[in-house]
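Marked as duplicate of an earlier ticket. Keeping the data here for the record.
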Amino acid sequence: MGQLAITGSKTASVAALTLTAGMWWAPAPAHAYRTFADDPGVGVSAAQQSSTVEWDLTAVDPDDPELAVFEEAAVAAFETWTSVSCASVRASYAGRASQPGIPGDHRNTIQLVRSGWLARGLPGGRGASTDVELRELGGRAEIVEADIYVNLEEFRFGTEADPSALDPQGVLTHEIGHLLGLLHPCEDDQPPVPQCASDPAFSSSALFPTYSGPQARLLAPDDRAAVCALYPVEGCPLSCPVAYECAVDRCVPCATPDCAAPTCPPDGCPPVPCEPDGTCVSGECALYGEHLDECVQAGDLGTRCTTGTACTSGTCLVRSGTGHCTARCQSDSECAGLQRCTQVEGIEVCAPLPSQAACSIDAGASHPNSYMVWLAAVGLLLVRVSRRARMTPKGNRR
């Protein structure tokens, strides 16, 4: 039986931040993602102080029955971002904290709020909120702390089987994007920020202002490009095998006897082939797709998987007991190698040519639920930058 699985792991003083709302608006970037460099009140990009982001989870009641649910969702959401191969960012879970997140405590905290949402200064009608604290560092800025608040006082969170509840992992994937330094790619009411209707590709971003169910667990290419720009990899992400060497971001065959780094041609460096037995000294052998029989990184298209959380694309296609990472599609032209854009219970994915094996879709790939969360505009409040989420009827943005 086949299966398609889609799932997904300080304080600056006010005076320290000299970037003000009077700064110029940065020119529109060539990419679709936005960082604090595109915020008129900041003007420079900002990333966490360390590429290893430590975070904790807290609730007023240590026996809160939903702590385990959000713990699992948060770990998976962090893994979605940290599994991007070209990014150096990593996450370190410090465990459940007994103390709530407090501005200025130099902690990245995910906090469950069951009461007193408005008393905290958080606006009503929002499903989640992320406050990011910045500090200027000589022409750039760093994130010294980010706190994510989850509104359990006004909203219910649950599984995809409950269409009236918000998806914890989807919400946290979006909010962690803000924690890492990303902004919404578009807005509907903040010119000159691009209008969301101006480019259909915006809607595939996990940072899209209008959030629809578990789809927000998945990263779009621009999301991956954004986290790679903020947290670039230094050196090769793979440990190169004998007779290969690192060339910026991949292993390439040694070009000289002393294995001096070769110059890659304009179209890129040649990939490392799989061993005759289908193994790789570093990385994993692609089973299908454009890099068939080549060594790529775990989670790349074509590599083995059992669930979508193991794939960068978030999509794992299991046929006859063997799964591989694949991608969604709209036409055959989007599928590499001997693959076709095939509909599997309502979802079109790149799949090998038909065989006797049947394919089915698991609960992790249900259609978006009938509710949406409006993740509202970004505002810079002194040195605290707030991200807000508001639930509205589907298709009704305001």
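See parent ticket for discussion. The two ends are 44 Å apart (CA to CA).
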